[in-house]
Here is the input.
Amino acid sequence: MPLTIDQRLDAARVRRIVLPMRSDMPALQHVNAWRVAGTAVFDTGKDDAETRAVWDDQPDLGRITDVFCTHGHPDHMGLVHHFETAFAARVHLAPEEMASVVDAARQEQDQATRWRQTFLRDMGALQIGASVPIPFSGGSTIPPFAYRPLAEDQVLSLDGSTWRVALGRGHSQRPALFLEDRLGILITGDQILPEMTPYVGVAFDTPDADPLGEMMAFLLSWADLDHTIVALPGHGAPFTDVGRRVRAHLNSYQRRLARTICAVAAPVTCADLLPSLFHVSAGQPVLDFHYTMAAALLNHLVATGAAQRWRGTDGAFRYQAG
Ligand SMILES: [Zn+2]
Here is the structure.
C-alpha cells in the first residue's frame, strides 16, 4: 500500500507547524511553517503574541540552526529576526526578497503614502464617485541583520535530506521553492496553493510591472511536475498533483483576464472596473489589494498588446481593448 502524505512527511522528518493568522479571507486563517530534521525551519509566521506562543510550545527550539524563507511577506517572514537573535539561526532568502524587505522597513511613512496616493490617482480611485480603498494593514517585516542569498538550483543538505532551490516570480519579487527529489517533497510558499489562487498584484513602487505575466510564465514551467510529489504550501494542507493546481491557477488568471478584456471594451479607469472584476457590491469595503490586483490584470493586457493605456485629462489612466 502506498504511504499516506502524513507517513511520507514522517519518513522525511518534516513537521507542519500551523500558525495563527487573522485575515479577511476564510482560506487565510493560518500560515504554515515547516520544520525539517528538527534543525531547519521554512518560514516563521507573523510577528505577534499568538504566533510566538505556538513557537514557544515547540520542542527543542535551541536546535534550530537555519531559517529558510519562501518570501518576504510579513505573514511568512515576520519572526525571522527573533530566530536570528534568540537562536543565532542563519537566515536564507533570495537577494531580491531581502532588498524589498529592507526597502519596506527603511521607507519613510511619507514616501510610502505618496507612492500609494500616486498609484490611486493613476487608477482613478481619487475621483468623485470612485471607491477609496482601505490601506493594507500587514505592516512590514523587520529585516534580519545578516542573510545568506538563495540562488537558483542551489543545493541544501539538511541532515539526511537534500533540497534544491527554485526561484519563482509573480506573488512577490523572487519567491523560493524547495524540492527534495528523492523524498518527493516540494515546499511551495504562496506560489502554488491548494485552495485559493495566489495573490498577484502590483507594488506601489513598481506600478507599471507585469507580475501576472511573470506568474503565468513561472506556473507553465511547473505544470508537468511528477503528480506524486507532495506539495507543502504556505497556507492550507499538504497536497499532491501539483500540476492540477498549477493548471487551475492558470485557468483562474485566464478567466480574470477574459473578464477584464470584456470590461475594457470602452475606455475605463481601473476604479470603474472593480465591480465587474471582484463583485464588490454596495456597502462592501474596497481594499488596496482590489486595486493592485486589477492593475496587475490591466498591466498584463497592456504588456501583451491586448489593451492600450493613456492618461486622461483628469490624471487617471484610461484603458481600452485593442
Ligand atoms: Zn505571501
